[in-house]
Design a protein that fits this description.
The protein is mostly helical. Helix content is about 80%, strand content about 0%.
Length: about 220
């Protein structure tokens, strides 16, 4: 997390705010340099894992859209729309995926990387509580979708408030850096609280339905 904060948030912010002047990198090169850092991280993860998930793909697209808006000097309003679009897509996808065989809630909060899902499933069958578990996961899905919806609204408002200069200008780059930096305390923190509450809700109810303690639910 510390690495991601430095490479994907702090360094791009510094580049956009300090190196966008004509005597430094200039607006276009500074924007490319700033966006290349999180883009490189995304590409490295894709190469090392030989796959790219739905969320990672959206992040990749988001970076490309930001670069496109800046380099093509599109209307600044597009930034606010783009910032709101990604979490809004996640909110809708989370809800719709609950009707498929691969709901996103299992990717975010209930996956077999952390949870011993086989053991949990076995205890649910033994206690005849599978239907109750399914209802609980639907509730958790709505909680997670709510966090993405809140993120979309806050992203839009933050972008409209901060990014007021035309794309392709030094001021635009600086405002983009400010927005990137402020996105963590303003957007990520409140959404993280909702996600943590949803995770607590899932763990508490799994314990109630299966009789397992937390240390028995997770992989050692």
């Amino acid at each position: 997390m510390l690495f991601d904060l430095v490479v994907c948030i702090l360094l791009p912010t510094l580049i956009l705010k300090k190196l966008s002047a004509p005597e430094m990198l200039g607006t276009n090169l500074a924007l490319v340099a700033a966006l290349s850092l999180p883009l490189t991280v995304a590409v490295h993860e894709f190469i090392s894992q030989r796959k790219i998930g739905f969320v990672a793909a959206l992040g990749f697209i988001s970076i490309l859209l930001t670069g496109g808006i800046g380099l093509l000097k599109l209307p600044k309003e597009y930034i606010a729309i783009k910032e709101a679009m990604i979490p809004a897509i996640l909110a809708v996808a989370t809800l719709l995926s609950s009707y498929t065989k691969h709901p996103l809630i299992r990717t975010f909060l209930y996956n077999d990387i952390v949870m011993d899902t086989d053991k949990i499933a076995s205890h649910l069958v033994q206690n005849n509580r599978q239907s109750d578990f399914d209802k609980m996961m639907i509730n958790a899905t709505w909680m997670l979708a709510a966090s993405f919806t809140l993120s979309a609204v806050l992203n839009y408002l933050l972008a409209k408030w901060i990014v007021v200069s035309p794309a392709g200008t030094e001021e635009f780059n600086s405002e983009l850096g400010t927005m990137t930096l402020m996105s963590y305390p303003v957007i990520v923190v409140p959404c993280l609280f909702i996600t943590i509450f949803a995770l607590y809700y899932v763990i508490k109810n799994i314990s109630k339905l299966t009789g397992l303690k937390l240390e028995d639910m997770v992989h050692q």
